[in-house]
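Honest question from a wet-lab person: if I give you the sequences of every part of a complex, can you actually get the arrangement of the whole thing, not just the pieces? Trying it with mine:
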Amino acid sequence: MKVLVCIGHVPDTTSKINFANNDTEFDSNGIQYVINPHDEFTLARAMFLKEKQGASLTVVNVGPSTTETTLRKSLAIGADNAIRINAEPKDSLFVAQQIAKVAKDGAYDLVMAGKESIDYNGGMVPGLMASILGVPFVNAVVGVDVDGDKISVTREIDGGKETVSATLPVVIAGQKGLVKEEELRIPNMRGIMMARKKPLTVVEPDGDFTMTEFVKFEKPEVKSACKMVSADNVGELIDLLHNEAKAI
Amino acid sequence: MSVLIYAESWNGKFKKTSFEAISYGVDLASKMDSEAIALTINAESVEELYKYGVAKVISVKNDSLKSFATNSFAGVVKEVADSISAHTIVMLASSNVNSFAPSLSIEWDASLATGVIAEPASFEPFTVNRKVFSNKAHADVVLSKENKVLVVAQNSFGVIENEVSGSSEEFNVSPSDGNVSVESTEMASGKVNLMDAEIVVSAGRGMKSGDNWAMIEEMADLLGAGTACSKPVSDIGWRSHEEHVGQTGKNIAPNLYFAIGISGAIQHVAGVNSSKVIVAINTDEEAPIFKAADYGIVGDAFKVVPELIEKIRTLKG
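Yes, you can. This is the full assembly:
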């Protein structure tokens, strides 16, 4: 079984977000980049497919050479090889087209991604890829079992869970819950040493399709000061919520 | 030309989000000099939608659409959009909409924007404002294709009542077979769905132990609220990960959000700061949650929450 895991290179969750160039682009000054958290869950689950079912694991991303640190980290966690598509990720459709081509050319059985990136939050790339490839797609996945060419996938739905089955190849988008928190992988020294020798292939993008363009960024307005209520007069809070905020 | 609005239902009943979709789509259509037309799939009382200003409803009834697959839903919405020469499709975010919107945009050759929080700021070029960086920022995005699919974030536009007299027609579709088979569905029973909740009572490490959640649940019950928690609480396993709200958990936007014993790390605030009113209860007056909150009490949750429960009980009579 060949598994392709998409790895986003995103600002650490603690990052303060700023914009540059008259608010037209993200200010990467002083930003630490990490594997997209949803992709971390997916990669950890993919590692079980490798360790328990002998799957081969390729990680892929679309980005300039600066994103290779994140791919190397994924190799240190245990992926077998990496592919970097050498382009600025212009929008979700562009990224999806590029990765779909790699997935098709490499005849991958299972393409796994996080359900969204924590930077642009489109939540579109996995579904776009599946549609471009013409294969089934399951979103917000919290459970996966592969048996031969059959896959059983549990997804979160509004207010519950649903389990579906399909025939490979399939694209799934994972999230928190796909593995337990303690099953997330942290690269160890041996992994980091081995990662240096693993193949990281750079391929050039194919085509230039986009559907959207980010033109301006802004930060939400800062809230006005918090109205404090004394802990000795809790009833006042309920009065305020009822009469002033009309929220209860 | 028309704007097609997808009004989502579950087991035949409209989801609350479908009314917000209609409200948004009707207003958008009038600004674009277009007709607003709603689409329902296996919904029962389609006339409920007239209350929100849509006068024409296309009702699809088809047994094979009773279980969800992205390809069959995308195909049907595209078929209806083409039949009425729609230029824009409006949907409200939900688990199923988020799942099939990308496929719809490919099949219909449309530009797709998700996390939309306002009506287009301009039509030439077609520009919408959406959430980015997990709600730490917003962005103006230009949709370059002629066809557009907008997925609007929940509670960003609101529900607007505007009763009209309307009519509905049944529309026959021939959906392609779903490319996944639903094996089982398991709904959480007796709990308010966090994504639909008007009020959310959320608690953090300040609760000291997972055994101390009875008062949080009691308060939520009294308010008809959903319960949520911070990331550390779900990581430790005091509460299930489904309750985790924040940057890497659920992003919620209720009317009223209680953050109890939650310090308010930037990742937490990102997931909840679309809430209309935020109440923070924390022993530490320096806790960053007070910067995000509208109302605050510096105090011990174990003393404050039981008193709140009493006051709410009195209020609710």
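Two things worth pointing out. The helical segments of chain A are 37-53, 68-77, 92-105, 125-133, 189-197, 234-244. Chain A touches chain B through 76 residues (CB under 8 Å).
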